[in-house]
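Action item from last meeting closed. Structure (125 res):
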């Protein structure tokens, strides 16, 4: 199954498509939409019991948004969702809708902490 890469140029996020690169929006907008340059997940005691999870002593795991997004790749369905949004469409706050939907999808995925069931139940899109 083909995966579609990301690329950040001049602080703008692009995702590969079958034909070209799709402009998602500025990383500044994406950082603002997800709550900052760092994203933090909280794990309860049961979740922290798994050996591979390396949280801080308070049960949190933080990561850099730019670095994480730049290193991701996506399935065709994810890319198609973003492709379907008009490049010039904005939300009620004037933010490019592609960037807003991307940020919403990413926070849903991150907050699901790897649980596909929780991600699938999201009403993000």
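Sequence:
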């Amino acid at each position: 199954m083909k995966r579609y890469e990301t690329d950040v140029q001049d602080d703008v996020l692009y995702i590969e498509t079958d034909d070209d690169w799709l402009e998602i929006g500025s990383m500044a907008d994406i950082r603002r939409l997800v709550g900052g340059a760092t994203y933090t997940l909280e794990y309860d005691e049961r979740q922290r019991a798994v050996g591979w999870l390396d949280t801080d002593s308070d049960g949190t795991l933080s990561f850099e948004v730019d670095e994480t997004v730049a290193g991701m790749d996506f399935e065709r369905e994810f890319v198609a969702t973003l492709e379907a949004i008009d490049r010039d469409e904005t939300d009620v706050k004037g933010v490019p809708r592609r960037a807003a939907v991307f940020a919403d999808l990413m926070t849903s995925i991150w907050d699901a902490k790897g649980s596909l069931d929780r991600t699938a139940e999201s009403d993000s899109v």
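Note appended to the action item: The beta strands are 4-9, 12-16, 21-26, 38-42, 60-64, 73-74.
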